[in-house]
Amino acid sequence: MPGRNPREAVDAFLEPLKDTISCVARAKITLSHDGRGGTGKIHGLTVNNDMPVKLTCRPVLMLRIGMLYEIVRTEEAGRPPWRVSTRAYAYELQTASGELVWSYHWHPTPAVPNPHAHLGHTQLREDAVLSQKAHQPTGRVSLESVIRACITEYGVTPQRDDWDKTLALREGDFQLYRSWS
Amino acid sequence: MLDRAAREVLGVSGEEFLARWDAGEYEDSDDPAITRVAMLIPFAR
User: What are the backbone dihedrals phi and psi of residue A105, each rounded to the nearest 5 degrees, phi first?
Assistant: First the structure.
């Protein structure tokens, strides 16, 4: 979502993320140096200081969230001139012992330019064709949809009563303001 | 943060990871472990 200046744009970017994360956990978002105002550089965002967040479910699952973003100036008519553009994301669901269950990644590099998923090897049979290193193609995956899947598919107990409405609202914002699919 | 992750998943220091990253050693890598650490580069610079 746009803002009148870089700081406002970052605040508008963070607010829905905080809302979304609060549906399953209480965790702090940390930004890299000058992450609220620095332009012309890529910033980092982690949740819980890059440590996986413990989710309320049995068996215990952990979620690690990381993003890269840039504060960019836009020329969109009728909108404030600054916005945050996501440059990469990594959402990783782990077991309590830290083994990967799955992860959704997008980190544009020549080797792997598109969004994809990895499946944890402990979730696969010894003779499985799938491997943890394989990049299963996906579309762009929102944090909101990942949090929703934690609740609806993996039995995580929501931490707020209005989680469904909140995630729907924030997912709507994501669809409206994203700059690519 | 980056140093901890680099040691945990790649067995190298954060400093060494950054040196290899800057030298382009990871350019052709599709290893998810590299991604995991690379996401933290802005926290080290």
Answer: -125, 145
